[in-house]
Amino acid sequence: MALSEFSLIQQYFAELTAKRDDVVLGIGDDCALLQCPPQHQLAVSIDTLVENVHFFADVDPHTLGHKSLAVSLSDLAAMGATPAWFTLALTLPEVNEAWLKQFSAGLAELAIQHNIQLVGGDTTRGPLCISIQVHGFVENNQAFRRDQANNGDLIFVSGTLGDAGAALKHRLDNWSPAELTADDWQYLQHRLELPTPQNNLVETLRGNTTAAIDISDGLLADLDHILSKSGNGAVIDLDKLPLSDALTKLPFEQASQLALNSGDDYELCFTVPATKVDNLAPIADKISCIGEITAEKALILRDQTGQQRHYDARKGYDHFGA
């Protein structure tokens, strides 16, 4: 017998994640009832992934389940929020039980890892589309906001940059530089399809970070959001961009352009006063200082010789761009 909408939810999603004590009423009613802790604010974000826009039609459903939640968890990390709950709106062209089993398993593994509970959602028929709304807690007045960067703050990023962009360029443009091996491509593809949200950095960053954003559209485009909101500029040292072993095999200009302009890495970019840098020691091996916030409202790239150039054409991904 074919699955109905409600039996689909019951079989694959109702018991998907671990139970939290702050969920008074979860899946199965018109609304979920959720208990917020005192002296905390609720951080809410939503992301939509559309087939052939955000992921290829032949992507493994298990990795798609992981990425669907990972991109939203990354938003909570960028706000300094602790994950709590999420909802899922899933549009399917058909009921494919093998696909659903793998998709829900990938989703569940990451959800359990971050102790975030599925509390509701919707399913409908149509082109494959996944929307996840996440909710998290942050203590009053402790959120990492884009508008709080100050002149003299140092700019940090987590992880390495440009890996997902390299994998995407390989897939879209058949780009295959001779320097990269099969193992390199496997690593880069993993970075594109299975991003790791940086929520594990949040505890150390609390009280030390003035502004933050996750890198989904490219470092320069996303950093520009911080600069615009804060009314500042920045100097980025190109030789300090963190590159993976794979990308360091490429000519530096090529690798740095990937690191600066390509998205989908879901690393964090954040600013820290110089007086608080020592507090980041517990995560020092996971982050890199790449520049400084300036009073001059310009984004400047500085090479290893000290030569500077203004960067005006922000090239991050824009769904409605030309």
From TrEMBL:
Domain of life: Bacteria
Keyword Manganese: no
Record GO biological process: thiamine biosynthetic process; thiamine diphosphate biosynthetic process
Catalytic activity: thiamine phosphate + ATP = thiamine diphosphate + ADP
Residues in coiled coil: none
InterPro entries (alphabetical): PurM-like_C_dom, PurM-like_C_sf, PurM-like_N, PurM-like_N_sf, ThiL-like
Binding site for substrate: H54, D264, Y317
Residues annotated as binding Mg(2+) 3: D30, D75, D214
PANTHER family membership: THIAMINE-MONOPHOSPHATE KINASE (PTHR30270)
UniProt protein name: Thiamine-monophosphate kinase
Native organism: Methylophaga thiooxydans DMS010
Lineage, top ranks: Bacteria, Pseudomonadati, Pseudomonadota, Gammaproteobacteria, Thiotrichales
Gene from which the chain derives: thiL
